[in-house]
Design brief:
The protein has 230 residues and is of the alpha/beta class. Strand 9 and strand 10 form a beta hairpin. Helix content is 33%, strand content 23%.
Amino acid sequence: MNVEILEFVEGAKKARGLAVIIDVFRAFSVECYAFDSGASRIIATASTEAAFALKNLYKDAVLAGERNEKRIDGFDFGNSPTEIIKSDLRGKTFIHTTSAGTRGLVNATGADHIITGSLVNSGAIARYIRHINPGKVSLVAMGYRAKQSAGEDLLCAEYITRNLNNEKPDISDRIERLREEDGSRFFRPENIDFSPPTDFFLCTMIDKFNFVLKAEKRPDGNIELLRIDI
C-alpha cells in the first residue's frame, strides 16, 4: 500500500486511489457530530449558492458552514461542533459548505474512493482503509482556509499513517502543543462567538466515533456523505 500526503485543493485534485480529505478544525469533525446528533443525511457543497439551492429541495434541511470562520448569513449553523452537540438534528438533511474541507471533497475528482478525515474518527479510518486494502492512499491535509499548512491536519495524516502500520502512537503531547500553535485561535476572546474553546477539545477527541464518512458524487455535482460503521 503506497501512502502519500498532499495538501490543499491542489492536493485534492492530485489525489488518486483511496483519498482521505482531512479537515480537523473543523469541517469533518462537525460532520461526525452532525450524524451523532441524528442527521439523516449530509450533503457537502463548495458554494453558498449551491447550499441555498439544496435547501429548497429538502423539507427538513438545515444549512451549516462558514466563510472566514464565521457563520454564513442566512445559515442555521456555523462550522462549530459546539453548536451541533447542542442541537437536535434528528431527521434533518444537513447541508454543509466550508472554506477548505468541502472544497476538497468536490475537487478530488481523480480518486477512486473518497472518505473524510478527522481525529475524532481516525482509528475507524485506518481500519476502513485496511479493509479496503487499496494500492494507493492519498491523505490530503486541507489546511487553514485551504491556503496554509495546518498542524492538526498534518498530525491527523501522520496518525492515520502510523495506524496503518499497526502503530498506536500517543499524540497527547502533540495535541497539547496545538493549543499554543494552530489551535490558539479557539482561545482568543474575540473569537468566542464563532470559534469557542470547546471546539478545540471536541475536534481533538481521538477515536470518539467508530464510523467513517464516505463521499458519493451526486448528479448535481455536490457530495453525499454516507455513514459506514466500522
